[in-house]
Amino acid sequence: MDMPAKTTAPRALFESSGVKALLDQLDAELIGLAPVKGRIRDIAALLLIDRLRAEQGLQSQAPTLHMCFTGNPGTGKTTVAMRMAEVLKQLGYVRKGHLVAVTRDDLVGQFIGHTAPKTKEIIKKAMGGVLFIDEAYYLYRPENERDYGQEAIEILLQVMENHRDDLVVILAGYKDRMDTFFSSNPGMASRIAHHIDFPDYSEAELLQIAELMLEKLNYRFDADAESAFARYVHLRRQQPHFANARSIRNALDRIRLRQATRLFDSDTALARDDLITLQAQDILASRVFNTSPQGEAA
């Protein structure tokens, strides 16, 4: 009696599929987010084992991978969605592995007969990849009787069920609003297999993010600037409209602007070190140091 052939070792398949390289890239790109990265690895493991089962002739059905990403702005939801699309392509779950990111305005029309073609056109673009719908709760506006968001939802529901082997839909937004959205749309809730929450970054993680951003741009803080920026982050996190990594990126843009203005007034030739070094004065000029916690600063 012939013994059944053994499958490829999961670890070897993990590396040869290219998924390990993609997840390592995600680790390098995004600071923190350990629970999020862990869930992405879990999904990759599920698809890899599913592939090995198919090799052995075991009955296999492609798992439903529609997802919901919840969290505050600037926590990496779009970046993770992009990497997820690439992972799914590497594992053969989708054909193209591209990401189409949209909001309500891309899907919902303003008059009768406008919504269906808009939604179907977006779905056509996303087929073979991932459709990322940010602030998805805005699709449903029960307070407006003439709103056409429900029509877009119905089309999405049908596509999510009938084409789940070639399209992954990721809904994103604030957790409390997404919970309300799902309670009002049980059909949508039943099609979401994975709920992933993106936590806010700690101060230490935000400083790491800033260092990573500066390194990519060939800038650095001097010792005094590092201390000043740590104070900036501590104060800015307490103010309204703080958007995690997005606010850090905006802050660095303003700091670079102040550095450029300072250097522009110089009468002497600039060395390479002058061009790459950000000083404390470039940071301390921010309004954040003169604004109460209730006010917004730049």
Describe the fold and architecture.
The protein is of the alpha/beta class and 298 residues long. It contains 14 helices and 7 strands. The strands form 2 sheets. The protein has a 5-stranded parallel beta sheet with strand order 2-3-4-1-5, sandwiched between helices. Strands 6-7 form a two-stranded parallel ribbon. Helix 2 (19-29) runs antiparallel to helix 3 (34-55), helix 2 (19-29) packs antiparallel against helix 4 and helix 6 packs parallel to helix 7 (149-162). The mean pLDDT is 90.
Along the chain, the helix and strand elements come as HHHEHEHHEHEHHEHEHHHEH
Radius of gyration: 23 Å
Work out the number of β strands: 7
Helix content: 40-55%
Instruction: Give the number of helices.
Output: 14
In spatial order, strands of the major sheet run 2-3-4-1-5
Q: Which shape, going by the Cα principal axes?
A: globular
Low-confidence stretches: none
Q: Gap between N and C termini, in Å?
A: 75 Å
Strand content: 5-15%
Mean pLDDT: 90
- Largest sheet data: 5 strands, parallel
What structural class do the secondary elements suggest? alpha/beta
Write the layout of secondary structure elements.
Layout: H1 10-16, H2 19-29, H3 34-55, E1 67-71, H4 77-90, E2 99-102, H5 104-107, H6 115-126, E3 130-134, H7 149-162, E4 168-173, H8 175-184, H9 186-191, E5 194-198, H10 203-216, E6 220-221, H11 223-236, H12 244-264, H13 272-276, E7 277-278, H14 280-284
Parallel strand pairs: 1-4, 1-5, 2-3, 3-4, 6-7
Helix pairs in contact: 2-3, 2-4, 6-7, 10-12
